[in-house]
UniProtKB/TrEMBL annotation:
<feature type="domain" description="CN hydrolase">
    <location>
        <begin position="221"/>
        <end position="476"/>
    </location>
</feature>
<dbReference type="InterPro" id="IPR003010">
    <property type="entry name" value="C-N_Hydrolase"/>
</dbReference>
<dbReference type="GO" id="GO:0016787">
    <property type="term" value="F:hydrolase activity"/>
</dbReference>
<protein>
    <submittedName>
        <fullName>Carbon-nitrogen hydrolase</fullName>
    </submittedName>
</protein>
<dbReference type="InterPro" id="IPR036526">
    <property type="entry name" value="C-N_Hydrolase_sf"/>
</dbReference>
<keyword id="KW-0378">Hydrolase</keyword>
<dbReference type="InterPro" id="IPR000182">
    <property type="entry name" value="GNAT_dom"/>
</dbReference>
<dbReference type="GO" id="GO:0016747">
    <property type="term" value="F:acyltransferase activity, transferring groups other than amino-acyl groups"/>
</dbReference>
<dbReference type="Pfam" id="PF00795">
    <property type="entry name" value="CN_hydrolase"/>
</dbReference>
<dbReference type="Pfam" id="PF00583">
    <property type="entry name" value="Acetyltransf_1"/>
</dbReference>
<dbReference type="InterPro" id="IPR016181">
    <property type="entry name" value="Acyl_CoA_acyltransferase"/>
</dbReference>
<feature type="domain" description="N-acetyltransferase">
    <location>
        <begin position="5"/>
        <end position="165"/>
    </location>
</feature>
Length: 511
């Protein structure tokens, strides 16, 4: 017969078993045990916060908690203060923090992850009640053995590095709680901890402030990637017709973003008088403002945020590779390619930009890197430190191996920065346009590689070298959960004590 484990609310009838288990769990405890009156008071005030875990119908563990308005106490409090001198008068159903006042497991049942189950149910309760966090003061019962050698701060650091094992703190750290500070005189009868405690916290990433809930951005976002075919045009109007067709199609699927490739307007170079590549690119830049304005009109008309890929742009007699984010509310912002490839310098004399930033949209915070830029991990890391959720990468690659450089680097950026990365480029050939004759593309949406995402980190991908649109839905809430509860935590575990990056100056709004 299989063993049965159950977590349920504590009842007054459980009191005898509860105390037997507590006595076993606290053999060396000099303080008082929970009284019948105290348990009765807790159950009456907050029944769903009082939990027991049963193993084959025997109570082998317990977790008790109250709700407090945390600002009434702050980080400098004692156990006596937070519990209202053990009366639990501090329990406030309208509070914002679930405060843990007890957790223990019978020693004969430890090592079976029962404590983890109690913590998980407590976290679920925090989320269910829309509370900011789970907070509690944690004992450090092995500290008395090291008191003469080190201060509590050093002891805690060594426990974190697993150089010292503490049966309470080591367990709490493994359950995603982080130490906010060291408390003194927290629990006077805790002689093993020398009256010290760690103030521990687990943040509810799903918490919604009722005052700002109406301002919350969309969590489910639909991406529309346009894999664009390079074809000849006899006029700018023909290019507009093709571009509007794709925007209309993406909008029909209720997409939040429509994304074009890098230099999608390059076919216009075949119409220009100059046969010199560098001069033709500068003439092409004359169309950029007009194209930007048209895309901004379409963003409003079709109710979709448009990322215009990139186009040549003259500024202070410097030829840059830039693109525009055309918000569906009419606002337009610019982004620039930072790193210029050898061919871009050789054929067109392009210069790299020096501005980098994230963009707040009605569908999340995004970053945009143009092609070669995604091969430099520092740029995406800077954007992730600004809480970027989606990274868009419009690119232009001629050969399969060039495309694979962009693809592999984009996939790595998704893992490193715990974000979605969407890439798209152009297909087809332009024999009459020098340095634009070949194109290879397969649009993809990459994800981190963790349990909530596809195992291979690919949300969706287009058919290679085929003109089409790729529609893909991404859930931003998965990123929030990953940040704190992922199998690995790239952003949280970054060694800022060893290395750091610095954000470049931001790009001004274009209108």
């Amino acid at each position: 017969m299989d063993d049965i484990v159950e977590i349920r609310e504590l009842k007054l009838d459980d009191y005898r078993q509860l105390i037997e288990t507590m006595e076993a769990a606290y053999k060396n405890w000099v303080g008082n045990l929970w009284t019948f009156m105290a348990i009765d008071r807790l159950i009456k005030k907050f029944p769903e916060g009082q939990l027991v875990i049963c193993y084959n119908d025997k109570i082998v563990g317990c977790a008790l908690s109250i709700i407090v308005n945390y600002d009434d106490f702050g980080d400098n409090h004692t156990y006596k203060e937070i519990t209202g001198n053990y009366t639990f008068s501090t329990h406030n159903p309208q509070g914002d923090v679930l405060y843990g006042i007890e957790v223990f497991i019978h020693p004969d049942y430890r090592g079976r992850r029962l404590g983890r189950r109690l913590y998980d149910v407590r976290k679920e309760l925090c989320e269910k009640l829309n509370l900011k966090a789970v907070v509690f003061g944690g004992r450090i019962p092995n500290y008395y053995q090291y008191e003469s050698e080190m201060k509590p701060k050093e002891y805690i650091a060594k426990v974190k590095r697993k150089e010292i094992y503490d049966p309470v703190l080591s367990f709490q750290l493994s359950n995603d709680f982080h130490v906010k500070k060291v408390l003194t005189n927290y629990l006077p009868e805790d002689l093993q901890s020398r009256e010290y405690a760690t103030l521990l916290q687990w943040d509810n990433v799903y918490y919604e402030d009722s005052e700002t809930e109406t301002k919350r951005v969309t969590r489910n976002v639909r991406l529309g990637l346009i894999q664009w075919e390079m074809r000849y045009y006899t006029s700018l109007e023909q290019l507009f017709t093709q571009a509007e067709y794709f925007i209309d199609s993406v909008s029909a699927y209720k997409s939040d973003f429509a994304v074009f490739p890098e230099f999608f307007n390059a076919p216009m170079m075949a119409l220009l008088e100059s046969k010199d590549e560098a001069d033709a690119m500068r003439q092409l830049a004359d169309y950029t403002e007009q194209i930007k304005d048209k895309f901004s009109e379409w963003a409003i008309k079709y109710n979709v945020n448009i990322i215009t890929g990139s186009m040549p742009f003259m500024e202070d007699n410097r030829l840059k590779n830039v693109g525009f984010l055309c918000h569906r509310n009419g606002k337009t912002e610019r982004y620039e390619k930072i790193h210029i490839t050898p061919d871009e310098q050789k054929y067109w004399g392009l210069k790299g930009g020096d501005m980098l930033r994230t963009y707040d949209t009605d569908a999340g915070k995004i970053g945009i890197l143009i092609c070669y830029d995604v091969e430099f991990p520092e740029l995406a890391r800077l954007l992730s430190e600004e809480r970027m959720q989606i990274l868009f990468v419009p690119y232009l690659t001629d050969t399969h191996n060039a495309y694979m450089r962009v693809r592999h680097c984009a996939a790595a950026r998704a893992i490193e920065n715990e974000c979605f990365v969407a890439i798209t480029g152009s297909v087809g050939n332009l024999p009459q346009v020098e340095a634009m004759d070949l194109h290879y593309s397969q649009a993809v949406v990459f994800t981190p590689c963790d349990f909530a995402f596809p195992f291979n980190g690919i949300k969706s991908e287009a058919t290679a070298n085929t003109e089409m649109i790729l529609i893909s839905d991404v859930d931003l809430s998965l990123l929030e959960s990953l940040h704190f509860h992922g199998s690995v935590k790239n952003l949280l575990d970054k060694r800022n004590d060893l290395y750091a990056t610095q954000l470049l100056k931001s790009v001004p709004s274009e209108g």
